[in-house]
UniProtKB/TrEMBL annotation:
Major localisation: membrane
Domain ABC transporter: 4-234
Protein name: ABC transporter ATP-binding protein
SUPFAM superfamilies recorded: MOP-like, P-loop containing nucleoside triphosphate hydrolases
Length: 361
């Protein structure tokens, strides 16, 4: 049974359509990530669910209750914002208890909830400190704790880690994952960082222009993106795109400037492969080099143009059919600019997109 349901929701700011007839169901206990570039509507959708923005059209249900026009405090949600939004004059304990006191909860209940949240988030030693005496990561833990003490079924996170440095982001990402596993509450998380999305989510909703482009598990979106936009947004670095055309017939192939990639492992449906312009997509990590390339169905020679050491591996850039192609190699393997190397890949792990609409073929 779904915990949150968004039904035909649209939001307009004057003549600007921000959300366009969105439909979304979030399962009970699910961790759903809203992912997309700035301006795609992900934070707007979260704010509509929270009640911070009124929808222009449609309905929102939380735990089977229509909350479309309910006040935020009456929706049974806890929200963590991008900014910590802590009261500087209050201690950590005061920040955690503020909302509970306003709700007139008994003192014993408030103390129990604060103690539980502090234990889960490992902030017990910080309860008597004020926000100015805390690090960025500690402040964000307190902000999460403030939502946690509300003891609600649905938590909403609006890019909570974007103000932190890379190391703290990584650490708190793990803590949020642990928190979800421990609480088993429904969580909806907004981010533009695809690594956060891939590591945290049970499912990802990739958004663009106020529309959900694809809603699926992280692995399904990574392996079978529905269009070129999703394929390019997921992955770091993104998927390689080679422009060319499909040559149909008994032995269909993708032709890019005379370099052909066989497509016999693709399923084109009853009509078979149709000729025409197309875009071939292959991820850098699926391109092999050297001995590993010899075992691949397709092999080509590439001249190295750029070498980027990444620590755990090295990202190499070259030209394939006159177009940019990146691939990963082991750190121990010496690759230099100007080298001519043998690469290979399995077309079965690649994607093929329509050149005009960008949809997956």
């Amino acid at each position: 049974m779904p915990s949150v349901v968004v039904r035909d929701v649209s939001l307009n700011f004057g003549s600007v359509e921000v959300l366009k007839s969105l439909n979304l169901e979030v399962g009970r206990g699910e961790f759903l990530v809203l992912l997309g570039p700035s301006g795609c509507g992900k934070s707007t959708l979260l704010n509509c669910i929270a009640g911070l923005l009124d929808v222009s059209q449609g309905q929102i249900f939380i735990n089977e209750r229509n909350v479309t026009w309910d006040e935020p405090k009456d929706r049974g949600i806890g929200m963590v914002f991008q900014s910590y939004a802590l009261y500087p004059q209050m201690t950590v304990e005061g920040n955690l208890s503020f909302g509970l006191k306003n709700a007139r909860l008994p003192k014993d209940e408030i103390a129990t909830r604060i103690a539980r949240a502090a234990e889960i988030l490992q902030i017990e030693p910080l309860l008597k400190r004020k926000p100015l005496a805390l690090s960025g990561g500690q402040r964000q833990r307190v902000a999460i704790g403030r939502a946690l003490v509300r003891d609600v079924d649905v938590f909403l996170f609006d890019e909570p880690l974007s103000n932190l440095d890379a190391k703290l982001r990584s650490e708190l990402r793990v803590e949020i994952k642990r928190l979800h596993q421990k609480l088993e509450n429904t969580m909806i998380y907004v981010t533009h960082d695809q690594i956060e999305a891939m590591t945290l989510a049970d499912r990802i909703a990739v958004m663009r222009g106020g529309i959900i482009q694809q809603l699926d598990t992280p692995q399904a979106i990574y392996s079978r993106p529905v269009n070129r936009f999703v394929a390019g947004f997921i992955g770091s670095p993104g998927m390689n795109f080679i422009e060319g055309e499909v040559v149909g017939g008994a032995a269909p192939a993708f032709d890019a400037g005379g370099i052909k990639v066989p497509l016999d492992r693709y399923e084109f449906g009853d009509g078979g492969a149709r000729g025409g312009k197309a875009v071939f997509g292959v991820r850098p990590e699926h391109v092999a080099l050297g001995d590993a390339a010899a075992a691949m169905p397709c092999q080509y020679d590439v001249e190295v143009e750029i070498v980027e050491p990444m620590g755990s591996d090295t990202l190499v850039w070259g030209k394939f059919a006159g177009q940019n192609l990146s691939f990963r190699v082991e750190t121990e393997r010496a690759v230099s600019v100007g080298d001519r190397v043998r690469i290979g890949f399995d077309p079965g792990r690649a994607s093929l997109f329509d050149a005009d609409g960008g949809e997956r073929i």
